[in-house]
Every structure is written in C-alpha cells, then in structure tokens.
From TrEMBL:
InterPro entries xref list: COMT-like, COMT_C, SAM-dependent_MTases_sf, WH-like_DNA-bd_sf, WH_DNA-bd_sf
Residues at the catalytic site: H321
Protein name listed in UniProt: O-methyltransferase
Occurrences of domain O-methyltransferase C-terminal (ranges): 186-380
Keyword Methyltransferase recorded: yes
PROSITE patterns: SAM_OMT_II
Protein species of origin: Teratosphaeria destructans
Domain of life where this protein originates: Eukaryota
Keyword line: Methyltransferase, S-adenosyl-L-methionine, Transferase
Gene Ontology terms: biological process: methylation
Amino acid sequence: VPTRDHVDFDQIQQIQQLAEADARDDGVAHHKLLEAIHRLQLTAETPFDTATRCRLQPLQNLAVRMALEYGILQALAESNGEPITADKLSEVTDADRLCIARLMRMLCWKGYCDQVSVDTYAANDMTRHICTPGALGGEKILYVYARQSLVHCTETIFPIGRELSWLMREKGFLSKQYGDDQPNPMQLVFGQPYFDYLDSREEYQKAFDDSMAARKFGTQFQWFELYPAEQRLIQAHKGNPEAVLVCDVGGGQGHSLARFRERYPHIRGRLVVQDLATSFQGIKVPFGVEAMPHNFFDPQPVKGETEGPGAHLYYMRHVLHDWSDKDCRAILGHIVQAMTTESRLLIEDSVVPPSGGVFRPIHVDIAMMLTFGSALERTESQ
C-alpha cells in the first residue's frame, strides 16, 4: 500500500491566514488560497484517492453539460430563488424525471445548485453564474474546447482525447519529429483548424465570443490598472483626436476597451478593436469603441504613414498562446511594421512559472497542446 504524508497543521494555519486576506478582497491572496487548499487536499488524499478523483472528473463535466443542454440549470436560475421539484423541472424541460434526479445528485455535490429537500432543488450563485452567456459559451467551447470550458471540453477536447492513441502512434503527435508545419490534432480529428471550425459553426463561434467577453469582464485586474495608462497614454496623447489611441488586436467584441473608456471617459483619441468579421456579426460594439474587421496574419491597417500616425498603443490579450512561435513572429511582425517611434506594444498573457504550476495556466496549456499542437502557455524565458 503506497504511503502518504499526513496533514501538516501549518498548512491549515496558512489557509486560515490566506482566507482572512481573501475576505479583505485581496486578489493575490485569493489565488494563493485556492492553491493552498489544493495542496492540502493532495496531502490528505492517498494515491488511490487522487487517481480516482482524476479518473472520475470527466463524468462530472458530462453531468453539467447534460443539465445545461436540457435547460435544467437554466430553469433553476430563472426561478427567482424559489425551490423547484424534479417533477416541475421535468415538466418545463421535457427531461426525464429520473434522469433529472440522478444528474442533480452530482450537480448538488459539485455545488452547481442546492438540494433543499428530497427531489427539490434551488439555485445558488454558481447556478446563476454558469447560466450567463459567457459561462455557457465556455462550456460549449471545452467539450469542442470542453461552456469556456464545458462546450469546448465536450465538443473538442473529449473527441481529441478519444483519438490520442491514434494521434501519437500513427501521426507522431508529440514525438521529436512533430513540428509546426504538421497538421495539429484538431485538423486530424475534425478536418479543420480550430478557428476555421468555429467559423463554420455559428453556435460554437458565438459560444467562443461570449466566453472571451466574459473573461475580459471577469479578470481580477484590468490592463490599464497594471500599465500606467494615465501617464503614458492620456498625457502622451494630446494631439489629433482622430488618431488611434489604442488598437486592441484580436480583441473580440471590444469589452476591454469599453472598460478603459469607462475608467477614462475624458480621453482623446480613437479606440479600435480588431478581430475577424464573424466576431462582430449580430452584436453591438460598446459605445466609444470602433470595430475593424482584420486578420492579424495580414498587414496591420492602423499604421504610421502619411495617412496617419498609427496607434499609440497596440494591445494583445490572450492571443499569442493560441499560436506557435513561428506564427507569433508573423503576427508581431505585422504590428512592428505598423508602429512608429511613439508607438508601444502591450502583450497581456499568462506566464507559467519555471517550476511548479498555477491552476489555470497549466490546464490551458494542455488544452492548447491538444487543440493547436504547437501553441502553448509560455514561461518568461520562452
């Protein structure tokens, strides 16, 4: 029987201290608290416990996905806090009553909703969160990416996972010979690169766009809170109000720039968000933000030449991790050619520590590997 460490009560004391800091809305402490709880769980678990938990995780994801597809969680979220019985959920969703009861055992255990009595359930904060467009988008994108993670996971990651033996043994995926120019797992399993796949499926494209928009609103810190925007942008840009102040490259539906505009409503200069034309279809771009359809593998149209000074700041958030080093050089090359001596390039992305790991980046890194092949979350040296 494998041996295991016993719980160190210093760990519990550390968790208590971090919990107190987290209660004061310390964003850094919040992430440290989650990591400390994770380490405590690993210490308390036997190797068998840990292996079993990992083995059963996909079933938890699938239960959530089934509940979302049938509208069970959505019905709870729309109940205005009133408990709903399994019978009533069956009536409003057309899902089988017994299946609802079985799914709800898992969902209540996972904290997605609360059980208030036998076969009677109520929404909680998690129920309402998972039913927002951004969260739903993520779910739909992990089931193809697994909603930002459920749809992506179940629709893309799971099918790729099913073919891993074939991908590795027959196609050389992850072998020393596997390179940037070879088809990635998404192409081999689905016949299309990931973004082409989204482009050909309106539901998944919308799910992706919604989840990216939610991430921009849900982030702990905004880029202009970390970057000295007041000093370097607003004071530096006192000239032509028609010039572009910030160009958000690959910026989705413009929500990052909208937050910037809310913080600094007195700013001069244009705010331009660039993304593929499909990202702007059927949506209203936030007030004060201009939508510019653009593929960042093409020359950058906001450039410093005779027709204008280019952008003072080119900004990219969570874009480059989708691409190989070779592709990143091409993307950045077009921006560099458009910049003037007054321009700046700001890249916001996760940085993986050289040792150890942080929950979200290490999970996203595996998703990048499986979806794009040569894409990755990078360390500082990378």
